[in-house]
């Protein structure tokens, strides 16, 4: 029996203080369990993309944190999120990574479920006849009560009630609009398969690094120097690019000021219109020359949708916490519908950059693991996140912005984190 | 097995052992010199039979990207290899699947012990080589590395495998 009147009340003010966080937020096992409860098993979490289950009865194995989730498209075309646990004895009903089926049959005692999660039938049903507790309606698979999509990105929530996905995304929804309009068809697909990269680190070091524009000049100097890449200058001291906090924990590095200064279509992708004539023509036809030109100058976003969907211009990453000090990053190349010539380059660049052997991500991941070992040291107990605090400002939409190397995103993430962690429901 | 077959197996084995040693000892330039000008280095993910032209691979390097990878090591700022992994691999089960005047297709198995600050890791691979004869030795036109656990989430793999 609880001895306090507010058993769920959590006060993080001793761990998160404006421009500093205590190292234990990355290492405390009890805090990790609370994060699962209050962020991962309560709020909206990105699960998968509609293009991964294009046909009726398709399914693909996904996750929300450590929880496996089966994403299905049912026979009526609706997307469902199911848990892979038979209500009989807890066995797994699905053992394949993806496929097409109307029903999942548990291999243990052959209970069969539709791809909406409903129990269709028992094996040897006589044993359950006239037993009032053997009610098929109450013995289905676990089903996530809320599923919503935006621009093809499917989010789920374990909570029956809460804010809508639109409220969760807030102003950051515009970044997904910006992403899909880079396709002449206005659609992206995630059909190239995932690289799965495991790291001994807390998930929040990855979350914060995604829009940390301070590290590329140092962590990635090796590849910038040998690959003749312009990316380094966007993250230099003289860059006009911005970091942005959309609220809700969503953060961005907005490189458009740099691309608009150059005013060259497809510079954002390190190529030229001449090299991708079919794509440019398809864009001109779809949007008209003027708008197409602006889209091709602006490029795709670099945005971290809290807590686990990172869009890095040409890749999608999904952050999956496994335990307080272990995280998996799932990464794939974005494919733009109607742009095969662009897509080939997307895949080639993605394979070179990300995953366990990636020319970029192996070094990022090395840093995450060092961060974690550092956070396990006792002193200094606090991590300082004050970079650019004195020069941050509100943009025309009221969002906080700073220099591309400033820690506006980290501060925004921790503000939101404190809010959702301290909330009682 | 004919004397010619034994001789060929001996020379292929010597080549594969030499490659393994260069990798274990981070002899990047000597390893790069083993490649033909059109060499392709492939490490698939999510199974051994994916189409690397359509699906993500852990590595799918053409010759110029192999060179880029090596140049990145030489900057000294490839953080994932600074400090370098300590490595020793055992190579076995070498077999020649096909051979002609123009090329040889050979297989080997390898167990690689990697020691880093994070942990000690054992990697297991099936390797497929397409070798072109060059005098008494060979060059690699293609090396496919099938990691036994390539369908799982993997720790950083930043050494030469």
From TrEMBL, chain B:
Matching Gene3D superfamilies: 3.10.450.50
Biological process, per Gene Ontology: 3-phenylpropionate catabolic process
One Pfam family recorded for the sequence: Ring_hydroxyl_B
Annotated keywords: Dioxygenase, Oxidoreductase
InterPro entries per the UniProt record, alphabetical: NTF2-like_dom_sf, Rng_hydr_dOase-bsu
MF-aspect GO terms: dioxygenase activity
Signal peptide range: none
Keyword Oxidoreductase: yes
PANTHER family, sorted: 3-PHENYLPROPIONATE_CINNAMIC ACID DIOXYGENASE SUBUNIT BETA, BLR3401 PROTEIN
Family classification: Belongs to the bacterial ring-hydroxylating dioxygenase beta subunit family.
Protein name per UniProt: Aromatic-ring-hydroxylating dioxygenase, beta subunit
Organism expressing this protein natively: Brevundimonas abyssalis TAR-001
């Amino acid at each position: 029996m609880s001895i306090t009147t507010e058993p769920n009340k959590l006060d993080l003010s001793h761990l998160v203080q404006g421009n500093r966080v205590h190292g234990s937020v990355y290492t405390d096992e009890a805090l990790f369990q609370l994060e699962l409860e209050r962020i991962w098993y309560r709020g909206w979490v990105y699960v998968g993309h509609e293009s991964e289950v294009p046909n009726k009865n398709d399914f693909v194995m996904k996750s929300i944190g450590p929880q496996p989730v089966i994403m299905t498209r049912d026979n009526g075309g609706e997307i469902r999120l199911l848990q892979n646990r038979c209500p009989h004895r807890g066995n797994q009903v699905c053992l394949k990574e993806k496929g097409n089926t109307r029903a999942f049959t548990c291999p243990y005692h052959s209970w069969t479920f539709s791809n909406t999660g409903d129990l269709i039938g028992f094996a040897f049903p006589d044993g359950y006849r006239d037993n009032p507790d053997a009610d098929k309606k109450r013995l289905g698979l676990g089903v996530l009560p809320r599923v919503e999509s935006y621009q093809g990105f499917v989010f789920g929530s374990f909570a029956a009630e809460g804010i809508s996905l639109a409220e969760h995304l807030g102003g950051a929804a515009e970044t997904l609009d910006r992403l899909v309009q880079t396709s002449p068809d206005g659609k992206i697909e995630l059909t190239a398969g995932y690289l799965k990269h495991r790291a001994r680190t807390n998930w929040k070091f990855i979350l914060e690094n995604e829009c940390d524009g301070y590290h590329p000049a140092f962590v990635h100097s090796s590849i910038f120097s040998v690959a003749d890449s312009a990316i380094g200058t966007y993250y230099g001291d003289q860059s006009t690019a911005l970091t942005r906090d959309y609220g809700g924990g969503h953060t961005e590095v907005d490189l458009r000021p740099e691309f608009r200064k150059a005013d060259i279509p497809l510079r954002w992708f390190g190529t030229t219109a001449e090299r991708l004539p079919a794509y440019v023509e398809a864009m001109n036809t779809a949007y008209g020359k003027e708008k197409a030109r602006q889209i091709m100058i602006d490029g795709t976003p670099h945005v971290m949708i809290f807590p686990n969907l990172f869009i890095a211009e040409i890749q999608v990453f999904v952050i999956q916490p496994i335990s307080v000090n272990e995280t998996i990053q799932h990464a794939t190349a974005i494919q733009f519908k109607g742009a095969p010539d662009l897509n080939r380059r997307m895949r080639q660049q993605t394979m070179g950059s990300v995953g366990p052997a990636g020319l970029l991500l192996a070094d990022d991941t090395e840093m995450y693991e060092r961060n974690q070992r550092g956070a396990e040291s006792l002193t200094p107990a606090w991590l300082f996140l004050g970079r650019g605090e004195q020069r941050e400002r509100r943009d025309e939409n009221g969002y906080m912005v700073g220099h591309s190397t400033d820690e506006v995103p980290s501060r925004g993430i921790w503000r939101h984190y404190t809010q959702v962690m301290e909330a009682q429901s | 097995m004919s004397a010619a077959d034994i001789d060929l197996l001996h020379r292929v084995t010597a080549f594969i052992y030499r490659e393994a040693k260069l990798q274990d000892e981070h002899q990047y330039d000597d390893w790069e010199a083993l490649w033909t000008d059109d060499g392709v280095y492939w490490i698939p993910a999510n199974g051994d039979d994916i189409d690397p032209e359509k699906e993500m691979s852990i590595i799918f390097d053409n010759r110029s990207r192999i060179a880029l990878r090596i140049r990145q090591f030489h900057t000294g700022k490839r953080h994932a290899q600074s400090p370098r992994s300590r490595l020793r691999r055992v190579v076995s089960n070498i077999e020649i699947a096909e051979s002609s005047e123009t090329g040889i297709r050979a297989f080997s198995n390898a167990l690689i012990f990697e020691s880093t600050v994070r942990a000690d890791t054992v990697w297991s691979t099936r390797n497929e080589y397409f070798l072109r004869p060059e005098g008494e030795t060979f060059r690699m036109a293609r090396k496919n590395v099938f990691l036994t656990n390539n369908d799982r989430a993997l720790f950083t793999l930043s050494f030469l495998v």
